[in-house]
Amino acid sequence: MTTARPDFLLTDLYELAMMQAYYETGQTGTAVFEFFVRKLPAGRNFLVAAGLEQVLRFLEDLHPAPDELAWLAGSGHASRDMIDRLAGFRFTGDVDAMPEGTVFFPEEPILRVTAPLPEAQYVETRIINILHFQSLVASKASRMVLAAEGRTLLDFGLRRAHGAEAGMWAARACYVAGVSGSSNTLAERTYGVPAAGTMAHSFVQAFDSETAAFEAFARARPDRLVLLIDTYDTIAGARRVVSLAPRLRAMGITVGGVRLDSGDLDTLSRSVRDILDAGGLRDVTILASGGLDETAIHRLVAAGAPIDGFGVGTSLTTSSDAPALDCAYKLQEYAGRARRKRSEGKATWPGRKQVWRHVDANGCMAGDTLSCASDPQKGLPLLRRVMQDGRRVAPPPPLDAIRSHAARERDRLPPALRALQTAPRYEVRISDSLRRLAADVDGFIDRGDAPR
């Protein structure tokens, strides 16, 4: 199943204004733009690329609808000539990108667009919108996966997501990063992300007794049964599960797990584990939720709390400690000439670039080199051609294949980068050829000329 095509007008007004000016002045030569992140958020050691599939789908389907053109014509935001040009507008360019799930670092482009300048300019807003959010959430989710150390991790964040599209993309990005499943049912239908869920406190409250609520839910949803036991008293809830289990077993229903959603999860999980084990329910798992993030998960795991899995909502879907990446989509070449932004604190490296990754004898990442795409370096080049002349060069990979790639990337992280604490910065070396190109561009800029 595919999602609906976004409106052509879902863009910043200045993209349309610049397009019109480009057309009117004949600035329609080939442009190269790159998307990258300037710096890591506080506490982060790496980022994970995600959202490429949605970018390519956006570019493939890109065209204005007649009613959008009619509105634009009457809005005063575009000239008649601009409207006529947009009537046949399609994306005709090339895209090179890092595969989704790839670990990346500041200054490294994860996507490059090569297209006529008006096209490459127009797509800026939506490309940033897509890549920023999914990479943000995938990076946050990867930290949680590492903190969980192999325990089940579930995305419970749909209800706190900043809108429906964010909830869908978050579920997808989380799954790419290694989260086991999501509470989002539509994400299973759309992307194949396994849907998972238990029950709410309101369900228990709706019955006259906790035992009655447990039994009613078990009869209605016997498969993968997980009971929420902290509505009133967690310890009493655990004992009621033990008492009810034989009766359910006689009906052919097995309690798969219990969920704790409040209180001191370390202490409570130990008490609940003892009660379940003493009652012969050693196979019943314990799932914890309720305001968790990677730091809380790490503490519980490090303390040896007998928790088998975690459900995480707000902190995951909103990346609450770092809700935005300092990212950009910048012009690096136009009409065959390298370009560079030199704003203080926001200078860019010019030209078409490639990232080469080095690994050590153990297969761990051991530094990257950022260089001109025309100047091959040692290591594995990370950006690959994924779209040519507006069409994909290959079918989209299955989501599970992307997820497997992300897992391999996590495994290749140096131990220091896998930790939650800030590690020494991973080395991204700037090649001599790229430094020379930047100096050449600067020289032309200072003379008021354009570099060739």
Topology:
Blueprint lengths: L12 H13 L4 E10 L7 E2 L3 H10 L4 H10 L4 H7 L7 E4 L5 E2 L6 E6 H6 L1 H25 L3 E4 L8 H14 L3 E2 L2 H7 L9 H5 L4 H11 L4 E4 L5 H17 L4 E6 L4 H14 L6 E4 L5 H9 L6 E4 L1 H4 L8 E9 L2 E2 L14 E7 L5 E8 L7 E2 L2 E5 L2 E2 L6 H13 L3 H4 L9 E3 L1 H15 L6
Parallel strand pairs: 6-7, 6-11, 8-9, 9-10, 10-11, 15-19
Antiparallel strand pairs: 1-5, 1-12, 2-4, 3-5, 3-17, 12-13, 14-15, 14-16, 17-18
Helix pairs in contact: 2-6, 6-7, 6-13, 10-11, 11-12
Describe this entry's structure for a reader:
Belongs to the NAPRTase family. Pfam families: NAPRTase, NAPRTase_C, NAPRTase_N. Residues 9-131 form the Nicotinate phosphoribosyltransferase N-terminal domain. The protein is of the alpha/beta class and 452 residues long. It has 2 domains: 13-137 and 324-352 and 382-424 and 433-446, nicotinate phosphoribosyltransferase (Alpha-Beta Barrel), CATH 3.20.140; 146-317, Alpha-Beta Barrel (TIM Barrel). 41% of the residues lie in helices and 19% in strands. It has 17 helices and 19 strands. It has a 7-stranded antiparallel β-sheet with strand order 13-12-1-5-3-17-18. A 6-stranded parallel β-sheet has the order 7-6-11-10-9-8. α6 packs across α7 (164-177), α6 runs parallel beside α13 and α11 (234-250) runs parallel beside α12 (265-278). The longest helix has 25 residues, at 124-148. The mean pLDDT is 96.
